[in-house]
UniProtKB/TrEMBL annotation:
It holds the Pfam family SnoaL_2. This is SnoaL-like domain-containing protein. InterPro entries: NTF2-like_dom_sf, SnoaL-like, Trp/Indoleamine_2_3_dOase-like, Trp_2_3_dOase. GO terms for molecular function: heme binding; L-tryptophan 2,3-dioxygenase activity; metal ion binding. GO terms for biological process: L-tryptophan catabolic process to kynurenine. Residues 402-501 form the SnoaL-like domain.
Length: 516
């Protein structure tokens, strides 16, 4: 198979030697995590040796990333697995000594985090890390000795990727390449965490605590990846753009692992839907019943968290790219930059989005009688008709017929124009009214959005001195194709000009919620 330019550029085939796959998950996690730290400290050392002011922000960003990577390693549940690295020495980690003594507090935090991880698993650099602490006049920390049954080779990323032998195109080439190499390490970790969840769903082993742990680690990985890519925001554009031209056809958008991370997220969710369908449950039911469906709700919430992480990654990538090449551009592989926008606007797990919308509308009707009550109690004035109700029967019949015809045909303009400028609808009675044409339009949009079909018929009409009372029946289909039937009473006050001053609706909205 022909290799894509991106793989050739970041030496992905060589980097894959650290990707052990599903069967060696903990080994994969350690190898990829430490390889990423090796690349980070190698890049930091390279920038420090140049000693240019423009690199200071980059170094700060890399140090922040190193700290985050150790936090990610610490977040992994090793389950007391007896595995670890052989005792070794890292030329790249040693680059921390190139930092000025003003970075001592940062070194303190980073090395403390190293020893936090080393309490769980043998990392093999305890002596070297303590020597670095000593270099910055920091008190040495106690190393924990492990009796690891399986010892794996420390990832010599310099040797494997031949970092010392590479010839870079210009001053930004090294940064651009290594940011993507770091990303590939953590993409692989995220993929394997999600594959662990997939196996749980396949076996219907819904240990919600374990699944949540994997989801949250993946979310943290995505957040780190979103921040890691922003190191490229610090490139000197005058140097980057010639590199971009020389790299024609190579783009981070070609990362197959990034695609796989997205693809497996969707696949996981499809399996979850099949699982709850077998239990005769649906998403709305689970969200509505947190006390009885706590475990399943936890998984839904974790899918929502995963979606937030994926969208944040796409958003940060869009912002970065538009800052560098302008939002009107298209990338090296020919995609319009604006096409990225859909990745973080459209819902990834559409069924969850729809379920939350369903629950929103259902709740609107379920609690319709108290809609706006808290605000209504605090408002200074309650709307009331400003003119006397008309006694002209022809006007009353014409207006009420037009009212129900307009709402049944979803004719918003005709319906609103039947009201006086300060007219209002109180639907149901006791809720906060929609007052004036602007608010009436909001009410009508809610009707249009909820119903796909709608027909109201007048059953009876009582014309009284100060109002007209219309008894009606409604037959409709909801937006999700549910048959809806309900009835009610509407009290109109109409002025002599044939404009509705007020429409008050007496009915039980919860009837619709029950039918949904």
């Amino acid at each position: 198979m022909k290799k894509i330019p991106y793989d050739l550029y970041i030496y992905l085939d060589d980097l894959r030697s650290f990707f052990k796959g599903n069967l060696k998950k903990t080994e994969n996690f350690l190898s990829c995590g430490m390889a990423s730290l090796e690349i980070s400290t190698y890049l930091m050392g390279s920038l420090l040796r140049v000693q240019e002011d423009k690199n200071i922000e980059k170094i700060e960003h890399i140090l922040k990333g190193i700290e985050t990577q150790f936090n990610l390693l610490n977040a992994y549940n090793f389950n007391s697995e007896s595995i670890g690295f052989n005792e070794g020495y890292s030329k790249n980690i040693e680059n921390l000594k190139l930092l000025d003594l003003k970075y001592a507090r940062r070194i303190d935090r980073i090395t403390e985090l190293y020893f936090e991880v080393s309490k769980k698993v043998q990392l093999g650099l305890d002596d070297q890390i303590n020597q670095i602490r000593d270099y910055f006049f920091l008190v040495k920390l106690p190393a924990k000795k492990h009796n690891s049954e399986k010892i794996i080779e420390y990832p010599d990323i310099v040797e494997v990727l031949k970092l010392n032998e590479l010839e870079y195109f210009n001053s930004e080439d090294e940064t651009f390449m290594m940011v993507h190499q770091i990303s590939e390490c953590w993409f692989n970790i995220g993929i394997n965490e999600l594959k662990t969840i997939e196996r749980s769903l396949d076996n219907a082993e819904l240990d919600s605590a374990e699944i949540e742990e994997k989801f949250k680690l993946t979310f943290k990985v995505l957040n780190y990846l979103s921040d890691n890519i922003l190191l490229l925001d610090l490139m000197v554009l005058a140097d980057y753009h010639p590199l971009r031209v020389a790299l024609r056809g190579a783009s981070g958008g070609q990362s197959m692992q990034a695609y796989e991370l997205f693809k497996i997220s969707k696949k996981l969710f499809e399996k979850f839907l099949i699982l709850i369908e077998k239990e005769n449950k649906n998403l709305v039911h689970i969200i509505e019943n947190p006390k009885t469906e706590g475990d399943l709700l936890s998984i839904i919430n974790n899918f929502t968290l995963l979606e937030r992480g994926l969208k944040n990654f796409f958003f940060q990538h869009y912002v970065l790219t538009s800052n560098i090449i302008g939002s009107e551009s298209f990338g090296s592989i020919g995609h319009d930059l604006v096409s990225l926008v859909g990745k973080f606007i459209q819902p990834i797990f559409k069924e969850i989005d729809q379920a939350k919308y369903d629950l929103t509308l259902k709740t609107n009707y379920q609690y319709g009688k108290i809609a706006g009550k808290l605000i209504l109690e605090k408002e200074d004035t309650i709307p009331a008709p400003t003119e006397k109700h008309t006694s002209d029967i022809d006007t009353i019949i014409r207006v009420t017929d037009a009212y129900f015809a307009a709402i049944s045909s979803f004719n918003q303009e005709n319906w609103i124009n039947l009201f006086a400028k300060d007219g209002f609808i109180e639907d149901p009675i006791g809720s906060r009214p929609y007052h004036g044409h602007q608010q009436l339009a909001i009410f009508f949009k809610g009707v249009i959005r909820f119903f796909s079909e709608f027909s109201m018929t007048i059953e009876n009409m009582n014309i009284e001195e100060d109002c007209v009372k219309v008894f009606w029946n409604a037959k409709a289909k909801s937006y999700n194709n549910k048959e809806i039937n309900y009835s009610g009473l509407e009290i109109f006050r109409i002025n002599d000009s044939g404009k509705i001053m007020s429409a008050q609706v007496e009915w039980e909205p919860a009837i619709i919620a029950d039918q949904l």
